[in-house]
Design goal:
Maf protein, seven-stranded mixed sheet, 6 helices, elongated, binds thymidine-5'-triphosphate
Length: about 200
């Protein structure tokens, strides 16, 4: 089928995980444009509304033609009302991980798809239990530097998998792009996730 019949897909993300997760569906975006927005939470902003607001803001700011499909997402780690963003350094990463140690927390990923002036959005929330970390586990994980650039200072798909015995919800949503919901949103926006024939 003539590929011009399909709208272009713009991945509005600089996250390598999101590009990898799309590849898992056999989807290669026509362009990758990392959004540049202010991700600071508003005073007293709760995790889930914050996540949805940021995902939408990313989708609105990414450059695209009217017929292009823009895909953006935001992943927010929430400990109670507290938003755990990306740790600035190993010290803050240790603080985050000690706060998460031995407790359950939530990971919300909001996916926003825009086509022209229309936006479709879905928030996917999962629960994660982190084991109580020993000093050896904490220091070994920090030494991998895998916490860099990741909300909550951990990546479930990497070495931190050894620290997470239990989740409830969407594994791909925790990583950063809930694939079932993303596929549905792309279809709704007119981007053919399943291309019959070739
Ligand atoms: C909780 C968790 C987060 N992450 C990552 C996914 C995201 O890259 C990052 C969350 O930060 P985000 O702000 O959602 O995304 P980003 O800044 O990396 O990229 P962009 O805004 O350009 O789309 O944390 C994991 O890789 N694994 C995990 O288990």
């Amino acid at each position: 089928m003539n590929s011009d019949a399909f709208p272009r897909l713009i991945l509005g993300s600089g996250s390598p995980r999101r590009l990898e997760l799309l590849a898992q569906l056999g989807i290669v975006p026509d362009a990758v444009r990392p959004p540049d927005i202010d991700e600071d939470p508003l005073r007293g902003e709760l995790p889930r509304p914050y996540c949805a607001r940021i995902a939408r803001a990313k989708a609105e700011v990414v450059e695209a033609c009217d017929d292009d499909v823009v895909l953006c997402a935001d992943t927010t780690v929430a400990l109670g009302r507290r938003i755990l963003g990306k740790a600035a350094d190993a010290g803050e990463a240790a603080e985050f991980l000690l706060a998460l140690s031995g407790r359950r927390h939530r990971v919300v990923t909001s996916v926003a798809v825009r086509r022209g002036g229309r936006i479709w959005q879905k928030d996917v929330e999962s629960a994660v239990k982190m084991k109580r970390l020993s000093d050896i586990e904490l220091n070994a994980y920090l030494a991998t530097n895998d916490w860099m650039g990741k909300a909550g200072a951990y990546g479930i798909q990497g070495p931190a998998g050894a620290l997470i015995p239990w989740i409830s919800g969407s594994f791909t949503g925790i990583v950063g792009l809930p694939l079932a919901e993303t596929a549905a949103l792309l279809q709704t926006a007119g981007y053919p996730v399943y291309r019959s024939g070739s």
